[in-house]
């Protein structure tokens, strides 16, 4: 019996093998992992090579299950930054977030975010998380007592059926909670909510730096994600 299917825009933890094995009905269709649509992915892997090109930087990633390119377009790099993300070198481990794309028959992740992994436990946690989500979607919740769509727990990236939004937000800072509430209460459809609206409406007395830091923290935790560009956000 299958488990709960995540919302299409959920940030899905996955291994590279799962990504390479993802199915696609046709070239314009969304990718499916475990028969669930995936658009936003997060992967933890080792950087095997860094290739700087005229328009992008390609990070060759290997997590022990396969090898895949992560492509960061230079137009997406913030002003004042170099092409290579700070602290990322060959043989280091990174967490990447982005959208699964295919070009010329070869799959890659179009990177929205890449950062170094500072604690090796994050590598182990990610593999466990990816396996947990896979088992949940293919076998249902532990114990088999619930019907599809009824799930007792939740993980760091996908909403579960057994915890309320308030429970999941309890360990966030007041500013982070305000940002999440604002986005949930002001849905922007497929475009998401603009960062300027978040800054005005979440906690107007906060500085732009405070807002930016809080948004970065929420993205790293998989609570929110970019939609049409780096200035629009939606909750998972």
UniProtKB/TrEMBL annotation:
Chief localization: nucleus
CC per GO annotation: chromosome, telomeric region; DNA replication factor A complex; site of double-strand break
One Gene Ontology MF term: single-stranded DNA binding
Keyword entries, A-Z: DNA replication, DNA-binding, Nucleus
Lineage: superkingdom: Eukaryota
Compartments where located: Nucleus
Residue intervals of the Replication protein A C-terminal domain: 134-231
GO biological process: DNA replication; double-strand break repair via homologous recombination; nucleotide-excision repair
Cited InterPro entries: NA-bd_OB-fold (IPR012340), RFA2-like (IPR040260), Rfa2/RPA32 (IPR014646), RPA_C (IPR014892), WH-like_DNA-bd_sf (IPR036388), WH_DNA-bd_sf (IPR036390)
Signal peptide: none
Family membership noted in the UniProt record: Belongs to the replication factor A protein 2 family.
Entry-linked PANTHER family: REPLICATION PROTEIN A-RELATED, REPLICATION PROTEIN A2
Name of the protein in question: Replication protein A C-terminal domain-containing protein
Organism: Botryobasidium botryosum (strain FD-172 SS1)
